[in-house]
Ig-like domain-containing protein
Amino acid sequence: MRWKTIICIGVIVFIVFNVFNFVLVIMAATTVSKAEQRERREGHGQSNVTGSNETVRAVVGHDATLPCHLEPPFDVTTLIVVWKRDGIVVHVHRNGYVAQHENFRNRTSLFHDEMAKGNISLKLTNVTKLDEGNYTCQVPTLQSKVMSGNVTLIVGECI
């Protein structure tokens, strides 16, 4: 009986730690850094975020790329990039630090070598039916009229 209690406590600690970690990252994502403040003052960040007009289709178990970029191209390597699905934050990138929602952990990534050219597309690996939905890519600290783009993902069992 004692070992069951220890396991339950361990599971609760694990869940609380993961939720706390995710909340800290979201809080950090809403804070504007000194570099971002400087870029705003100097007039940088006039690019608009553009998603895809076309629906992305994926097969269960395969990978999908959700396209999103800045137009004109703008280096976002030091800025916050946020991806949401149906309003829920799934991926946050800030200065190389990444946070992911537990349902997307180790399955989402950005193309880091392309971020200097404004590419903030999201790669989603091992797609599941639950991944289907409307995604939004955001660069919340951009000083532009369009700070987010949309992409729809449809997931099927076969092509």
Q: What stands out?
A: The chain has one domain: 2-156. The helical segments are 2-29, 34-41. The mean pLDDT is 81.
